Amino acid sequence: MGKLCDKLSEDVRFIEGLKACLNCGTCTAICPAAEFYNYQPRQIVDILQTRDDEQIVSLLKSDTIWYCGECMSCVTRCPRGNAPGLLITVLRSASQELGYFVESEKGRQQLALKRTVGEWILKYGYCLYPSEIIPENHPEQGPVWEWEFEHMDDVMHRLGANYKKTGPGILRKIPEEDLEEVRKIFEETGGMKRFQEIEEYSRIKAEEMGINLTEGMDNDYIRHIYSYNSNRHSKES
Amino acid sequence: MKIEGKRRIWKDYQKEIAEDRYFYVRSCVRQNFFPGSERTFLRIMKDELNKDVFENAAHTTCSGIGYHSDIVPFETVMTMVARQFALMTESGYENFTTSCITSFGLYTEILETWQHFPDVELRVREHLKKATGREFIVPKNLSHASDVIFKFRKEIANKAKFKLINKHTGKPIQVVEHIGCHYSRMFPSKGVGGAEYPYVLVGMIEDWGGEVIDYPERRHCCGFGFRQYLVQANRGYSLSCSKKKFDSMAPYKPDCILTNCPGCPMFLDRWQYALSEMEGITYGENGQGIPVLTYEELAGMMLGYNPWDLGLQVHQVPVEPLLDKIGIPYNPEQKFLTLDGMSIGKPETPTFLKFY
User: Fold this and answer.
1) Domain end: A54, A77, A101, which one?
2) Which of A140, A192, A235 to mutate to probe the B interface, most B CBs <10 Å?
3) CB contact set of B62 (below 8 Å; sequence gap of 6+)
4) Sheet with B256-259, edge to edge strand ranges
5) N or C, fewer C-beta in 10 Å, chain B?
6) Are B113 and B99 in contact (CB under 8 A)?
7) Mapping DSSP to helix (H, G, I), strand (E, B) and coil, where does residue B351 land?
């Protein structure tokens, strides 16, 4: 058993998620990601079961661990009580902690997630916020969202929201003292450290790739990781 | 099988849902895309059922979408959840009800983790105390808001002004039900009916007069997949999952889709539009889509609430064909007006998908 595997084993999600896999493939049969990507949750569990650090490092540097949608369909069906989807969360945490995520196209996308959802949590107290869901980044949202986006105050008022206002209610302005508590929780529990690691490893990778990375979303590296698809991820490719 | 045997098996998949005095926490996705649904939930609970539902303005996101996008560590999300529990405790409530399925799944997972690893709970208590000075008691009862509507489905049926009956044919409205993945996939015993045969939406549909459609991909994910939708380059995953479901359900000619997760109705609504623009496909009759509803919207429709108060105007797939089938009145002229009745224009008409 390797040192990396020992470290993964300290995570309660690893203990809960990995019993003894019999390689039946039921998880792969039910997995939405396995249908779309060149991905098999069975293989993930099988590799972890070897407890071989070399294979696990390769996994952490690969696109493979980023294909799962964390729907947890695999958990329901596993006849041995394994939870491949839960193990994926452990592997993704380790990949970011060790800086391996920047070695894969899908892993590098973590910076885009940090700079959107991550920063919205700290700024607004919500994972999503309507003024940030810009129609040109979301053509699939269609003309109704475009109309809402243009008239957000009126639409939210019509539907009973307390948008940007104080007190309880839908999309209320979260008081500064509560946002401060959220930030302190992130400081205390490693959330801020995770954000800093994502930033720092991404900065080094952007330099290595020769792509401009500055703060915010309006730079070449963010545009690249947010929209680039090499199309080498499906079974057919 | 003898009826007693059936009842005994079914008993394994029942869950306790509190009767009253709920501490309510909101959903990030719901507030952004279907705000009318949360308003309707509170209206039904307070005005129709006379229940005590309390919202503490200090509550925030649980950070669950961040956790399942893997940018928020487990330790952090557990402490964020602990803070929500602390607000409940400080407010004098014991029954925790959440609008969000991602949150519900996380709360369930975290409570289970603390049961198996009490030292983790102690550590989270220390984190919370140090960061915020707060302390908490774990909820006596944890439910999703759809559990609560399920519990009172018969009371809602008794007060209903409409039934899920096609007024032109006299036959039950045909409904596809779609359960959010994190409702019961990890912990089947925590959802009404378990993971294979969840009953939480079926119970509402049947008691309100409709019929449930069984179809091959009934349990397939809508395709949110967190990073698979949030990052533009990955959205093919999300779209493909929804398309697989539409292709599978279309031959059964559903009148509507009913959901209990905040994200699913958004995806099942928007991806129908995207597919119509990309490939010219529409899944309803005569260029219409299949209307997608939240359970709060459906309950409000049955109770005779104004469709534009429910927020049906912010659906990309128009709901009017379903309203017409049931015979629910609406004023098309008021669909896109402000609360004061002012015009703020209207959305553009899609290329293929019929729009009203």
Assistant:
1) A101
2) A140
3) B25, B77, B80, B81, B84, B100, B102, B103, B106, B107
4) B211-212, B174-178, B256-259, B292-294
5) N
6) no
7) coil
Q: Is B337 an 8 Å CB contact of chain A?
A: yes
Quick: pLDDT tens for B113-164.
999 999 999 999 999 999 999 999 999 999 999 999 999 999 999 999 999 9
pLDDT above 90 covers a percentage of chain B that reads 94
pLDDT tens column, B272-316: 999 999 999 999 999 999 999 999 999 999 999 999 999 999 999
- The parent domain of residue A84 ranges over 3-101
**Nearest Cβ partner for A69 among B221, B273, B339:** B221
Of A101, A126, A158, the residue at which a domain comes to its end is A101
All domains of chain B in start order, with CATH:
22-145 (1.20.1050.140), 146-334 (3.40.50.11810)
List the single residue in B with minimal CA-CA distance to A119: B66
ipTM of the complex, rounded to two decimals: 0.98
Q: Which of B222, B248, B249 lies closest to B237 in space, CA to CA?
A: B222
Contact (CB, 8 A) for B100 and A39: no
